[in-house]
What does this fold into?
Amino acid sequence: MGAARLTVDLEAVAANWRALDGASGSVVETGAVVKADGYGLDAGRVAKRLAREGVRSFFVAVASEGAKVRRAVGEGPEIFVFSGHMAGDTKVLREAGLVPLLNSAEQAARHLDAGGMPFGVQLDSGMNRLGFEPADWAVLRDRLGTAGPRLVMSHLACADEPDHPMNAAQLAAFRGMTDGLGFRRSLAATGGVLLGPEYHFDLTRPGVGLYGGLPFEAARPVVRLEAPVIQVRSLGPGETVGYGNTWEAEAEARIATIAVGYADGLIRAMGLAARVFAAGVACKVVGRVSMDLITVDVTHLEREPEVLEILGPHQKVDDLAEAAGTIGYEILTSLGARYERVYEGGA
Amino acid sequence: MGAARLTVDLEAVAANWRALDGASGSVVETGAVVKADGYGLDAGRVAKRLAREGVRSFFVAVASEGAKVRRAVGEGPEIFVFSGHMAGDTKVLREAGLVPLLNSAEQAARHLDAGGMPFGVQLDSGMNRLGFEPADWAVLRDRLGTAGPRLVMSHLACADEPDHPMNAAQLAAFRGMTDGLGFRRSLAATGGVLLGPEYHFDLTRPGVGLYGGLPFEAARPVVRLEAPVIQVRSLGPGETVGYGNTWEAEAEARIATIAVGYADGLIRAMGLAARVFAAGVACKVVGRVSMDLITVDVTHLEREPEVLEILGPHQKVDDLAEAAGTIGYEILTSLGARYERVYEGGA
It folds into this structure.
């Protein structure tokens, strides 16, 4: 085990999808967001497993990602592209049979010029990031409606905070733009699913919850990350560890060096707030996280560890995110290319 | 241009190597560190270009990386592995003809048991991260010396701070462990090269400086990163942007959304401190960096931009690192897999 090992439990992804599917009503379809390479876990493998589970609607960020998912799931499912129809996208959208979520009049014109391809529409209900503004939508609504959008959707800015007034404001804005028009509609990602049925419409599209992250607190953990110990050394009081001498031993200490670092996505900012686990016993990270190596205080362990757990039963993605001052989403999507990757419970 | 584009100038890498080679004396060999997949830029392409430049000694973090570099550069050059000879490494070390830098008595025993393979030695001169402690080295020095190490090296903890007393302390410790023994020696990475000739010994091994990063201030920039604009929208005073409503327009504003986010390695922490450039004009990032999207204030631009520059002539890797509260190294190694990658000046 020269490299650190990342184990991805695809059955846990499927179980999380089933749980979120169960959280919305039986007439609501539950899709799956597999953008950013399936939140860093391999969009092809995740989508294939979820297609077996019954998912018929996948969502990606850009067209090139959609082409990869198409290869994995075959011809049946719909694959929606959040960035819509950008300049240069026509060929890949057509060849992979993707459904761009048109975001603007400019994208609508580009798409209709390309002729006869399916599409959906993304509306801005207040996040001001992607989607038609209400005024632009009012102008094009009838024309696009006649052409038959496969889906009309929007995205919530504050769904992770159930009490935030933005949720109700966006719900009202979305309804104002779509009520009575008869379109198939979607508003909720993971956070929106948990906000309750009025946010579900015809289709929900969980992302982070599938991968074990907040705000889906009941999610099953999906990833386990273990790094081999390269060596363990003894330090005397006053000796320092790592770049910039940022950690100093106050007493005799034992320090283990593990083969993983920020180049593997273990964000440098986590520094001293992070912990790793030796057979369930917490050990503090000491000194700076470096590119390929992390140093850990193992003074209190009875035996020298051969492997340390970074993510797994004792530390979830969101626990590590908190140490790094970020969110679980970023921990997942940063997981690097150097790991030995093991997939369990696959299709 | 549906995806963001990362352009890597391999001729600039070569020019940076030549400059650092010139900074050490003509009898000193200059190697190259290509760990972490060549600091995120593709170890194979970087090593191949540098081999053409004359580099005969490459350095990687773990054995699996060395195997990739071997395929790129062929049989000639030496490839050293910083993590040494870990359990499970023997086969790949042998097959790829790699030179592990042994870090401990345990690794030395494992290596000698494997029989007849080349090796180097890493010594700990005070960083307490990798390498033999002085006492362990004293015990094994004669035995390993007889077996003929290809290189005896150590690593500086504070070389980016030329005035730090740790530099002289580590130099003295390294000399104390190696003077008079006749081994081929190396102590300096980029920072050490710039500390001056007493740190150069027989071989220097620049890393980050090759890729355009500090502490090599005269480095040529190596990467250019440009993201396409998906759409531009108008906001009125009081409207908010992005997750958590963290940014609010004080007056009429124009906001561009670009197709790049933290899943592409644009660290979420950079948030409001970051800027991007439209034909040389700085534009502030507004709202939270999200997984696949960043929102930018383009109110002051005369024309709507089609593309925004994130790294390039107007913003170096270390400028962006400062906005993210980290170092250029982490910006480089975090650059994601979703970019359209273009290589210029290759072998």
About this structure: The mean pLDDT of chain B is 95.
